[in-house]
Design brief:
Elements (H helix, E strand, L loop, with lengths): L1 H11 L1 E7 L8 E5 L2 E4 L1 H9 L2 H4 L5 E3 L4 E7 L3 E5 L5 H10 L3 E6 L15 E4 L5 H4 L6 E5 L4 H11 L6 E4 L3 H14 L3 H5 L14 H17 L4 E2 L2 H8 L4 E10 L9 E5 L4 E3 L4 H10 L6 E7 L15 E8 L1
Parallel strand pairs: 5-11, 6-7, 6-9, 7-8, 9-10
Antiparallel strand pairs: 1-2, 1-5, 2-3, 4-5, 12-13, 12-16, 13-14, 15-16
Helix pairs in contact: 4-9, 6-7
Length: 328
């Protein structure tokens, strides 16, 4: 399933996947995308059907009761800023600093200049009604609606709500936001869709300056981005799997205390002995690499990094990690 995961990531930027950690189906993986389930074969599909309700939610991490791990893979986050006013400039700058591919769209030529947006990847001059036509749908997109008026807000909102997104925030007074939401309800959008809009936008920091408002917007985006403990993809692993290499995938699925790498860190050992990515180096990685060739399906191994524990690997970090091994 990893080749399918990485293929979807290239196209859409965000993929939810789940893997069984124990029992008869240990190692079985599925993908949940756009309300659809993808699994290998009829038997596996039937097994994962019983978890559809959980996969539809925002759950992530190890679900002990169910014995499964839910992961949200993400890659190449995009920030689309609709409106090129005073708040947009510092928002675009901070977005670039945070590693987003940033697009700014506005119909005013004098506002949409490289002098005002030196770090921005794409400057798109067009009316907001052309958003769907000019900006491709992409799962891992963070929309920041900061247009100059109610008409622009509404034009953007009704298009964004019809496409996938990781975040949708809209600036404006509570009254302006209320009017826009009422119009969207009249248009036929559901309460659930409308409640997903972050409006007024940003974490309330009490700021008044454009730069302060930009900080509050980007802080909320970072908070939302990290809420699901997303797994960011190592391109070297993605390339190796998509090239058709077989081997063993190793993933840190749980950690406590201090350890070199966090949950979601991955390493892939190909059959020819070449490794890609890292789960932290040192004895944990060395021991995992020695164990990997013995894997025929899937299993979880625990490693201790504390000198106080008898099974310690000779490290003094003081933490513990659990590593999932999967035959790929």
């Amino acid at each position: 399933m990893y080749d399918k995961i990485y293929e979807l990531l290239e196209r859409q930027g965000r993929v939810k996947s789940a893997v069984a950690l124990a029992g008869e189906h240990a190692g079985s993986r599925c993908i949940w995308q756009d309300g659809k389930l993808f699994a290998s074969g009829e038997k596996e599909t039937e097994y994962w059907r019983s978890y559809e309700g959980i996969l539809e939610t925002d759950s992530s991490g190890i679900l002990e009761k169910e014995g499964i791990l839910i992961e949200m893979f993400q890659k190449n986050p995009r920030m689309v800023i609709l409106g090129a006013g005073h708040v947009s400039c510092p928002t675009a700058k901070i977005g670039s600093m945070l590693g987003f591919h940033v697009t700014v769209m506005d119909d005013r030529e004098e506002f949409l200049t490289k002098e005002r947006f030196p770090e921005t990847d794409v400057l798109l001059r067009a009316g907001f009604e052309k958003l769907s036509e000019l900006i491709p749908a992409y799962e891992n997109t963070y929309y920041v609606v900061v247009t100059r008026g109610h008409k622009g807000d509404y034009a953007c909102a009704q298009q964004i709500l019809r496409r996938p997104y990781a975040y949708f925030g809209m600036i404006g007074s509570r009254n302006k936001v209320r009017i826009t939401k009422e119009r969207l309800l009249e248009e036929g959008f559901s309460e659930k869709q409308i409640s997903s809009i972050h409006a007024p936008i940003g974490i309330p920091l009490g700021g008044q300056l454009p730069e302060e408002i930009a900080v509050s917007i980007c802080a909320e985006i970072v908070q939302e981005k990290n809420r699901q403990k997303a797994v960011f993809t190592d391109d070297s692993i993605s390339r190796a799997v998509r090239e058709g290499r077989h081997g063993v995938m190793m993933t840190i699925i749980e950690k406590s205390g201090s350890s070199p790498r966090g949950i979601g860190s991955r390493m892939f050992l190909a059959e020819d002995g070449t490794s890609f990515g890292s789960i932290g180096g040192g004895n944990v990685e060395f021991t995992a690499l020695r164990h990997a060739p013995q894997i025929s399906g899937a299993e979880v191994q625990s490693y201790c990094l504390s000198l106080d524990e008898p099974e310690n690997l000779g490290m003094i970090c003081g933490g513990k990690v659990k590593v999932l091994f999967e035959k790929v």
